[in-house]
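$ ./design --mode recover --in tokens.txt
reading tokens...
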């Protein structure tokens, strides 16, 4: 059985969502990295001491996007486009989400909720909102149908949607009508609802 290490309200959420989409049994181990004892115990499992982390037999993986591509290709290959151009688009939107949008949204989170008030920067939060909105507007223009690639849900929707959903939920950006409808489709998926149900 797969063992999955993660925590609520972290990047592990997107990989737990993928596990639910794949429908494979897994043991979910919640790790609080702020707790010294839990951190030390987890470091014995994964010296990198970052979540998410997945063990599937001999396969050991960190980094949520790598985990998600492994899970999809192994257990639910229809989530990965079969053609080369489609796969490239899946990589594009996945990397777009974590290298472009996510850092901007995190800047907003850090400077509005995470950092102590005396360390927050209103200018940095505003810059994060500007950057987040620019990328969400890019997605709005790119969404020609219900899904990012072709006519059905793929790994690109899950990976990008996990980040866009966070950015809009925290107020880093506002969704246009296409993005809002797309997020509604994603949140209606049973796997999404299981993955993000309160634990």
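writing sequence...
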């Amino acid at each position: 059985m797969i063992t999955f290490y993660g925590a609520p309200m972290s990047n592990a959420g997107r990989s737990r969502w993928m596990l639910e989409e794949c429908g494979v049994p897994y043991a979910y181990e919640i790790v609080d990295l702020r707790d010294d004892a839990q951190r030390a115990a987890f470091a014995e499992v994964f010296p990198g001491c970052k979540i998410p982390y997945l063990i599937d037999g001999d396969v050991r993986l960190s980094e949520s996007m790598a985990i998600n591509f492994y899970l999809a290709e192994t257990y639910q290959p229809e989530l990965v486009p079969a053609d080369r151009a489609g796969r490239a688009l899946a990589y594009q939107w996945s990397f777009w989400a974590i290298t472009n949008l996510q850092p901007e949204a995190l800047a907003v989170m850090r400077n509005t909720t995470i950092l102590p008030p005396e360390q927050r920067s209103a200018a940095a939060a505003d810059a994060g909102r500007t950057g987040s909105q620019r990328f969400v507007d890019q997605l709005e223009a790119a969404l020609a149908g219900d899904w990012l690639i072709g006519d059905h849900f793929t790994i690109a929707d899950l990976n990008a949607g996990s980040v866009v959903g966070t950015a809009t939920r925290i107020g880093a950006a506002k969704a246009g009508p296409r993005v809002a409808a797309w997020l509604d489709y994603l949140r209606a998926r049973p796997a999404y609802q299981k993955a993000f149900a309160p634990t």
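exit 0
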